[in-house]
Amino acid sequence: MRGALFAAAACLAALASPAAAQTRLFIASDSTAQTYAANRYPQTGWGQMLPCGMTPDAVVVNRAIGGRSTKSFLAEGRWDSLLAEAKPGDVVLIQFGHNDASTAKPERYAPAATLYRDNLLRMIWEARGRGLVPVLVTPPVRRSFDGARVKTDFAAYSEVMRSLVSSTNTPLLDLEARSADLLQRLGPDGSRKLYLHFTPDDKMAGFPNGIDDDTHFSELGARAMAELVAQELKSLKLPIADKVLATRPDLTRTMPLGSAACR
Asked: Do 229 and 137 meet the contact criterion of CB atoms below 8 Å apart?
């Protein structure tokens, strides 16, 4: 009897220990990663699709929200809320840049070499101060071509992130480079399917009048970007890498499923 009680007590202690706590993956980002309601289909964010490439017990907490930059995400208290929600050991993917470059919107604009860099440093140090694991993610490319060559419209912002890898010893997922390679392989025409290009005849509930958008992702685009993120995550020497599935058919689909569901 005493042995059984001791074993039960040991089991409860192990479950209560930090080592036994479940590691979660938080996403701090913008509309390219955001989770969208079904009535916005086919607009989909890569953070919305990422759970389809991870084990069923993995927990992805997507706090990405459209129109946010490092400046506005901090100013609105969204970063503070994320920190309050996260637990020691949780991983935080930090991807900004698209809206930081919005010079015409002062509430968003953060020059790459100064305020953007300072904001990223704040996020890194505050995350670590809470026992979290920050991971930088360079912004995905737009469907932007100079002739047949892909353009990286947010290169200055990505370079700041890359520079922080060595100076702060922060892991990096280079989504800009990976997405640029993907678009280069697909070309200007083949890459249209990854973004929001639909006519009224396509009868998409979220866009009854059609849409031409080279920034935001379609279902297939979000799946493809999530696959690139999953590949990069798998290569990191972090415990969360073990939660990435070895094969990810949900993220490598070539035909739309018609929703953001996992099969």
From this structure: yes
pTM equals 0.91
Taking the C-alpha atoms of residue 96 and residue 169, their distance in angstroms, rounded to an integer, is 19
User: What CA dihedral angle connects 22, 28, 30 and 31, to 10 degrees?
Assistant: 10
Helix (H, G, I), strand (E, B) or coil at 211: strand
pLDDT of residue 263: 83
Contact by Cβ (8 Å): 62, 35: yes
Residue 21 is predicted with a pLDDT of: 57
C-alpha 117/C-alpha 111 separation (Å) is 8
Residue with tokens 């922080």: 164
Distance of alpha carbon 200 from alpha carbon 222, whole angstroms? 22
Is 150's pLDDT higher than 50?
A: yes
Q: 162-209 pLDDT, tens per residue?
A: 999 999 999 999 999 999 999 999 999 999 999 999 999 999 989 999
Write the DSSP assignment of 98-115 as a string of letters: TTTT-TT-TTT---IIII
Q: Which domains does the chain have, with CATH numbers?
A: 22-243 (3.40.50.1110)
